[in-house]
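anyone seen this seq b4? input:
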Amino acid sequence: MIISENDYPENWSEIAKNLKNRMGWVCEHCGHGHDPSTGYTMTVHHLNGDKADCRFENLLVCCQRCHLSLQASYYPGQVVLFPLPWMTKRGLA
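predicted toks r here
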């Protein structure tokens, strides 16, 4: 895999778009659809923070609001008492 200067793979836009298409452009965390006019722009979050790790288990389609919240509060391996569906889907809980 070729990594660009900003640590994302050179084909990151394609990877992100394909995953958003796969998930129907809906936030996997809150369930809101893509609607930039109201602040629900779909993004792709690297759960472990490694931009080069583009395995499905490490990527989460989420709105910008959830992305910022998750980035500040979730880290792989933490104990979660009530796992969310996306955590189970990726084998994280």
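The radius of gyration is 13 Å. The CA atoms of residues 32 and 93 lie 22 Å apart. kinda curious what u guys think
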